[in-house]
Design a protein that fits this description.
Shape: rod-shaped
Keywords: ATP-binding, Kinase, Membrane, Nucleotide-binding, Phosphoprotein, Transferase, Transmembrane, Transmembrane helix, Two-component regulatory system
Catalytic activity: ATP + protein L-histidine = ADP + protein N-phospho-L-histidine
Structural class: alpha+beta
Largest sheet: 5 strands, mixed
Enzyme class: transferase
Radius of gyration: 38 Å
Helix content: 55-70%
EC number: 2.7.13.3
GO molecular function, one term: kinase activity
């Protein structure tokens, strides 16, 4: 019997096997694997014994046989036990040792059945102790107290009826009682270890759930912010379209050149409004948006952002290589601006004193690339409080814009944020 021999309890579904057990299933008890990964068990059937289970069960069987053999040898020299009773004792002990293989399936039934057998058979004592240990591991204390109490209560009576030939009565009783208590205590300790492991597993699952919920909340907030920004832009487009359409309605005699110019503005505004409306619908599928907010900066405000960062004491180099900055769609420009802003903010918090490089490149048809890179900081950086959800919001922005964003440490020890946004 090993210290991590565990049993059954009400399983808690986990959905997948923990990484700790991947590739090591043979090393752990099948009951523990069933507790941590009940979905892996075959429906309606008990989990198969692992290699570790077979080793432990064989060890328990051999231990029961060894104790039974020692007891059988003591019976041969005990004048208080007739030869016929010794034969019956050994037969009952052999059957009890064979029953040890059933200890995982029926721990309570085996312990109850071996209680009277242990009273009648000296050679079944080892199997009875193993059954008590298994009961303490697999069942709650209430069952262990009843069965263990009966076993301990019959020990004085057993040695009164069949005294030991070598030891005094009191020494025999005390030795067996202490051995029984130690066996039950060991089993309860193993059960407590198993419950602690399951408790830690549940706490880890709750922590993972909380992290996932925080990430989902950050994504929802980012979508709501994007929806507010789109509301301002869409309202501007529709207002412009309405003004020019109204001018055509009330000035039917306008010159052809003016009419053509107004029609071009209406066509362009309608096209832009349609694109913005598609983005709004994509945002509203996951969260509600309100009609409040303020206009957000675009790519044209990137120079101002860098200048403000420099005034705040940061070392920032800007490499702006966009062929037609004015032709960048407003939604793409806003996303690029927010990516650069978040990258500068993170560099200011986690790598103070370093020179941050901001690079913006792109052209119509190839897309817009934004890269923010900072080298590793010199010396120890004091911890800065933060939610850690800013990059999650940027990834959501880039995804909604049809692009992608990657971030992480560089081989040199710095940190880089790189995003690609479509520019068609």
């Amino acid at each position: 019997m090993t210290g991590d021999d565990v049993g059954h309890a009400s399983p808690v579904p986990v959905g997948e096997t923990p990484a700790l057990f991947t590739g090591r299933r043979w090393f752990f008890p099948s009951a523990l694997l069933h507790e941590l990964d009940p979905d892996a068990a075959r429906p309606g059937r008990r989990p198969r014994r692992t290699a570790r289970d077979w080793v432990v069960d064989f060890f328990c069987f051999m231990l029961a046989v060894l104790v039974g053999a020692l007891a059988a040898d003591a019976l041969a020299g005990n004048p208080h036990v007739p030869d016929g009773l010794a034969v019956v004792d050994q037969v009952a002990g052999a059957l009890a040792c064979a029953a040890v293989w059933l200890r995982r399936r029926w721990p309570l039934g085996l312990a109850v059945a071996l209680t009277p057998v242990s009273f009648l058979s000296d050679t079944a004592g080892g199997a009875g102790l193993i059954a008590l240990f298994t009961l303490a591991v697999h069942r709650p204390f209430r069952c262990v107290a009843w069965v263990g109490g009966v076993n301990m209560a019959q020990v004085p009576l057993f040695y009164w009826v069949r005294p030991d030939a070598d030891l005094p009565y009191l020494v025999s009783v005390v030795f067996v009682e202490v051995l029984t208590v130690a066996t039950i205590g060991w089993g309860m300790f193993v059960r407590a270890k198993r419950q602690l492991l399951l408790s830690l597993r549940d706490r880890a699952r709750r922590a993972e759930t909380e992290v996932r919920l925080r990430a989902e909340r950050a994504q929802r907030l980012a979508r709501e912010a994007i929806a507010r920004e789109m509301h301002d832009v869409l309202a501007h487009r529709l207002t412009l379209l309405s003004v020019h359409a109204g001018a055509l309605e009330f000035r039917p005699d306008a010159p052809p050149a003016q009419t053509a110019r107004a029609a071009g503005v209406i066509r362009e505004s309608a096209h832009e409004a349609l694109q913005d409306l598609r983005e709004i619908i994509g945002v509203l599928r996951a969260g509600e948006a309100d009609d409040t907010g303020r206009p957000q900066p675009t790519l044209g405000a990137l120079d101002t952002l860098v200048a403000e960062s420099r005034q705040a004491g940061m070392k920032v180099s800007l490499d702006h290589r966009v062929e037609d900055p004015a032709g960048v769609p407003p939604s793409v420009g806003r996303t690029a601006y927010r990516i650069a802003q978040e990258g500068l903010t993170n560099a200011r918090k986690h790598a103070p004193g370093t020179e941050v490089a901001v690079t913006v490149t792109g052209a119509p048809g190839t897309g817009l690339t934004v890269r923010v890179h900072n080298p590793p900081p010199e010396g120890e950086v004091p911890p800065v409080p933060g939610s850690g959800q800013g990059l999650i919001g940027l990834m959501e922005r880039a995804t909604l814009a049809g692009g992608r964003l990657e971030h992480g440490p560089t081989p040199q020890g710095g940190f880089e944020v790189r995003a690609w946004l479509p520019w068609g």
